[in-house]
Amino acid sequence: xxxxxxxxxxxxxxxxxxxxxxxxxxxxxxxxxxxxxxxxxxxxxxxxxxxxxxxxxxxxxxxxxxxxxxxxxxxxxxxxxxxxxxxxxxxxxxxxxxxxxxxxxxxxxxxxxxxxxxxxxxxxxxxxxxxxxxxxxxxxxxxxxxxxxxxxxxxxxxxxxxxxxxxxxxxxxxxxxxxxxxxxxxxxxxxxxxxxxxxxxxxxxxxxxxxxxxxxxxxxxxxxxxxxxxxxxxxxxxxxxxxxxxxxxxxxxxxxxxxxxxxxxxxxxxxxxxxxxxxxxxxxxxxxxxxxxxxxxxxxxxxxxxxxxxxxxxxxxxxxxxxxxxxxxxxxxxxxxxxxxxxxxxxxxxxxxxxxxxxxxxxxxxxxxxxxxxxxxxxxxxxxxxxxxxxxxxxxxxxxxxxxxxxxxxxxxxxxxxxxxxxxxxxxx
Length: 429
What we know:
single chain, 429 residues, mainly alpha, Growth Hormone, Chain: A, 16 helices
């Protein structure tokens, strides 16, 4: 039986499970990037065609973000996340069984449908279980799962491919996801379910949330889902995350190919040196969440605390543009690592803001879905654009990396000027 003391630790179990799901999520995404040279050889695909396969996931992942956010707010994160992880795990395994270009595209499209509910669900879980001044570190923990997944995917997938081939890597990672979905279903409950066990802790957690909702209730109007697009802050978050993800998705899609084809990395080197940027991005994300929470606890406004991390991280991450022009491979890796860590520093705060600007808890996942929809359009652009540019320039990554650096600066400006005060959006008639 759960005691009040165990309830205090339950939120860390919940956010830890979100962290693991996000790691599995990104292992499944990176699987294709690492296996790409083997798939291209077996299926006789050129870079442009491979870019189409990589982008297929992002089409459905982006387009399903908004309905996924609405669905999560309606059914809750226990149902939505268990269903989503089971769905994407099945189609990860299916990817390892296909033999044609069309079937490969189809499996990636269906994978994107399942993964669309992941990040908004994580944000909703953090909102449900964590008080305002601890959401930064909570969001940075689940967000860092993407970096851990990216880092682990290089040695893990390379090792599985060396033993079972590229098809086996998709099947194994799919099975791992199904095991997680079962664990989440049996473990997760909203904190309201624990009122009889830990009344003081639950009521304190709900009271803070209630203050935000009571303020919004003074205005009897309701914000429709479509009306969320009327807010400048929502558009600022959409543009900012698009710019951030354009750079960050390079690491998840074309980065392994860049190291192998441009820098001459072997599969073994890819699984060692190649994982350094993702490894350094993990503490970078934690530092971003800790820093914004620390600033908030020491008297700074939520607007200053969150924005200084977003803007600073985005500006520093623009160094990714220099990676294509340096000759020394170690300097190149250092710049990639600095860029990835800075993107993580900023990225951990994007999901904090979702909960802080939502008028009530009924809009948290919806706003997260809208933001992530725009953010993941970047996945379509970076994968397809890079494939086309490689074909045109005969294998040069100069233009894609330069564009990524420019968009990092644009993202910083969006967070600074378009995103308004970090506070609940006013309900409008």
